Amino acid sequence: MTDLFPEVRHGPVPGGYIGKVLQVDLSSGTCRDLNLPEAPTLRRLWGGQALATYMLLRVLPRDARPLGPESVIVMMTGPMTGTGLTPGGTKVCGVFLSPITGYTLGRAATSGFWAVTLKAAGYDGLIITGVAARPTYLYLDDGRAELRDAGSVWGKGTRETEDRLRQEVGRGDARVACIGPAGEHQVPAAMLVNDYNHSASHGLGAVMGSKRLKAIVVHGTGRPRLHDKADLLAAGERWRTVLAPRVYTAKLRMQNPGFGKVWGAFTKSNWRSTVISGDEARGFDRNRVTLRPCFQCSRLCPWDVEIGEGPHAGRIGHFNAGSEWLDAFYNLGFKGNDVLYLAERVNDAGIECGHFSNSAGVAFEAWEKGLLGRDRTDGLALEWGDLAVTERLIEMCARREGWLGNLLAEGAKALASALGGDAPQWAVHTKGGSPAQHDWRPRIADMLANLVASGGMKGQGGFENREPPADLRHRETWGPLDPAKPEGWARSHFLLEQLHQACGVMGVCWFAVETFLATDQARSMIDALNATTGWDVTLDDALDVGHRSIVLQGLFATQRGWRAEHDWTDVGPRFLEPVPDGAHKGFTVARWLPGLVQEYYRLSGRHEVSGRPLPSTLARLELNEFAEWAEPA
Predict the structure, then answer these.
(1) Residue 132 near residue 182 (C-beta atoms within 8 A)
(2) Contact by Cβ (8 Å): 54, 552
(3) Which sign, positive or negative, has the C-alpha torsion 358, 363, 364, 370?
(4) Strand 92-97 to strand 105-110: parallel, antiparallel, or no bridges (unpaired)?
């Protein structure tokens, strides 16, 4: 491994990096500092998902099991993480073998303050191996690493765990990333939750639970070196100007029922209805909302709520930038502040909301249709919109209690299969995992993004860009695309996926850039990266780095049996059904499958059925070391 982590560096560390990765062996209870890879590797991969996946490909055995002792977690920040001089420089990405699919890359990214403080504590990233003998947490403080007993918080929810560990280390400004009961019980879609308002999803919590690693607590005072602070300040100011029209407000949070309002569809009754009734956000206007922005970010996405009316009055909730957790409980028959109350409960348990919602949706529908009775529900009557029952199901899922709790934990596909009959037709999943919980079915690019994602992982393109990113319109001359026709959408998705990947691997949150439709959005981001690192990256270089990250993700899965055809063959039938009602009634992308997915793989230089990269793609992206996994000539 010295070729990747040199014992002695042969060149300076670029700006934006600390220069160290911490290797943690939980089995032996030891921690060891490693030097960050040399500058050429950093210049090729930057950080985040790309660099972390490259490391994981080197250290994870091919026959590893997702929750076996041989599993490995790699977490990496990027060079823009923690500069504090641009929006969105808050990201860390963890990669691992997905416990949701069993054979694809698990990717868990989070924002807030934790990643910034990891770098302040002296590390660009972590490599975690082995299994602790007892519940353990990792404590990092200004270059000092220590494994400590976590017995006092094992079994606790994420909120209490964060409070207790901050108190235990005696640092009020320490940052905590932890798992809840769902992670401890290895629920495949268990989350890592940090800074109250944030989560790293898609199964990282389950892998940590299998390692008996309850939390990672970080504290530090360091800051990465910057190449040219004046240029970075100037680029950051341009970036904030571009972002200004999209800043969130407390008033918006008190009115907005969720992202699906943009196109007029919410998930309801296990995806059997999409109609927006207009009272989904009832009572929101009586709540007290406090914005909780991420480190030095001007978009102000995360927020806290104190519920101001009804049976939950006085209850506190902590939420991030998205709104999947709203749709998650609309899907089960809830509205108003019941939704916020249940969303806080599922976050405290540490379960990804869509995973729970789509599993519970199958259970409620099975009860409604007589396929599930009290003998398998722990005596519960599963009526839509029953708050006490749903709250109990969250606990059963998190702790795998009983026949139903165990299958809720395994996911909609597994539960539907166990129920039998027509139930498998009611499941919503992609390769066994839950798509991000919005009704994407009316949106071509967003459906494509979810289908080609790594299984139970958010799509990284989509966003239904009908025109090219503004800073590429001098050569991307297509559009506007027709939302009712397939032509051009694979190109739109792939281009945005490259830019989102580039954004993430530099350590920036997508919510600070989103669609790239504003002029100077991409260029100000690239100029900020160059000012930070001292590089001379171009927008084309950024597209290539994003492309490398996409291909590395696919290579990881290819080595473990994935094929591109799984993207359209291993999908819950209901996800591909025509929209049942509302403004988009009858619409479905299924009529264009597999052609739409195959076009995406061709555009990205991969085989349309196997998903393997072409030899020419690996050569162009400087990934020839993986030539044995290329599509045979």
Answers:
(1) no
(2) yes
(3) positive
(4) antiparallel
Question: Residue 514: its pLDDT value, please?
Answer: 83
Distances from the Cα of 320 to the Cαs of 13, 198, 264, 406, in angstroms?
33, 6, 22, 28
Copy the structure tokens of residue 378.
């722990």
Helix (H, G, I), strand (E, B) or coil at 169: helix
DSSP 235-288: HHHHHHHHHGGG---HHHHTT---GGGGTT---BTTTTB----S-TTTTGGGSE
For 303-309, the CB contacts below 8 A with 24+ separation are 303/197, 303/248, 303/250, 303/253, 304/196, 304/197, 305/253, 305/340, 307/283, 307/337, 307/340, 307/341, 308/283, 309/283, 309/337
Euclidean distance between the first and the last CA atom of the chain, given in angstroms as a whole number: 31
The type of residue at 523 is R
Question: What is the phi-psi region of residue 212: left when phi exceeds 0, alpha when psi lies from -120 to 50, beta otherwise?
Answer: left
Residues in the chain, total: 633
Can you give the pLDDT at residue 30?
A: 98
Query: How high is the pLDDT of residue 3?
Result: 87
- What the block records as the tokens of 385 is 């919109």
pLDDT of residue 346: 98
User: Quick check: 407 and 337 in contact, CB under 8 A?
Assistant: no
**Secondary structure (3-state) at 132:** coil
Question: 213-219 and 136-141 as β-strands: parallel, antiparallel, unpaired?
Answer: parallel
| Successive 10-residue mean pLDDT values, the chain, 633 residues | 88 97 98 97 98 98 98 98 97 97 96 98 98 98 98 98 98 97 98 96 96 98 97 98 95 94 97 97 97 96 97 97 93 98 98 97 98 98 98 98 98 98 97 94 96 76 89 96 98 96 96 93 98 98 98 97 96 98 98 98 98 98 98 89
Contact residues for 287 (Cβ-Cβ < 8 A; gap 6+)? 254, 305, 306, 307, 308, 309, 337, 340
Give bridge partners of residue 89 from the DSSP assignment: none
Q: How many C-beta neighbours within 10 Å does residue 370 have?
A: 8
Contact assessment for residue 547 and residue 604, using Cβ atoms and an 8 Å cutoff: yes
- Residue 597: enclosing H or E segment and its boundaries? helix 595-603
30 φ/ψ angles, rounded to the nearest 5 degrees = -115, 155
By three-state DSSP, how is residue 605 classified?
coil
Rounded CA separation 154/609 (Å): 45
Q: What angle do CA 246, 252, 253 make, to 5 degrees?
A: 115
Gap between the Cα atoms of 380 and 403, Å rounded: 12
Maximum alpha-carbon separation in the chain: 68
